[in-house]
Amino acid sequence: MSSLFTAPDGLPRCGWSASAPDFLRYHDEEWGYPVGDDIRLFEKVCLESFQSGLSWRTILDKRENFRAAFAGFDYNEVAKFGAADVERLLQDKGIIRHRGKIEAVINNAACARELVAETGSLAAFFWSFEPKPEDLPEPQTTSTSPESVALSKALKKRGWKFVGPTTAFAFMQAMGLINDHARGCICREKAATAREAFAVPQMKPAA
User: Fold this and answer.
1) For 41-68, what is the mean pLDDT?
2) Is 118 a catalytic residue?
3) One Pfam annotation, family name (predicted)?
């Protein structure tokens, strides 16, 4: 949905941010702003995988519960989780109790450790898939892109799970690799300014 709505402060925002009470704050303070922190990036990949087939509102409402359940999404810690942790998490009513997705987070944590050893950081790897400005689609008109397809393939090649092209695209939107704020939304220019000031992490040289 690319339409705008007028927020309580009288200024225009992306239309989707009016659809739930917590969405406006998430839209204004997080969505579309560049992120270079590995823990936040890993968290977002995991939460987007949990969202598959569900609404973001469901995930956002449970985000703090997810953080508590998955050691703050510190992938070094989550990679140590075993079968007992899976069973524990399946009993946790505060999160989405989906065995496949829970196991995917643990699997992906181990893959994240390997990826950091390979590239230097998750941020360096993910930001290498940022599309060129001229390749960006009109805001909020698509749910995948060539870059999200490429990112999905690269992750799956390295053993990651529940990281399809649509999940990868949603991740890229949220983490600022794509500025998908609607034209006219007051946050579109703010996100663009933040991106200009953001230093893209670089991958370490190949050994």
Assistant:
1) 96
2) no
3) Adenine_glyco
| Tens-place pLDDT, residues 163-187 | 999 999 999 999 999 999 999 999 9
Band the pLDDT of 1: cuts 50, 70, 90.
very low
What are the strands, taking DSSP E only, across 29-173?
Answer: none
Q: What is the fold, at CATH topology level, of the domain defined by 30-197?
A: Endonuclease III; domain 1 (1.10.340)
Clarify whether 48 is annotated catalytic.
yes
Those residues with Cβ within 8 angstroms of residue 54's Cβ, 6 or more apart along the chain or in another chain: 96
> What's residue 207's pLDDT?
57
Q: How many CA atoms lie within 13 A of 175 on its CB side?
A: 29
Which is catalytic among the residues 31, 43, 48, 75?
A: 48
Whether 74 and 102 have beta carbons less than 8 Å apart is answered as no
DSSP 128: T
What amino acid occupies position 35?
V
Q: Strand, helix or coil at 187? A: helix
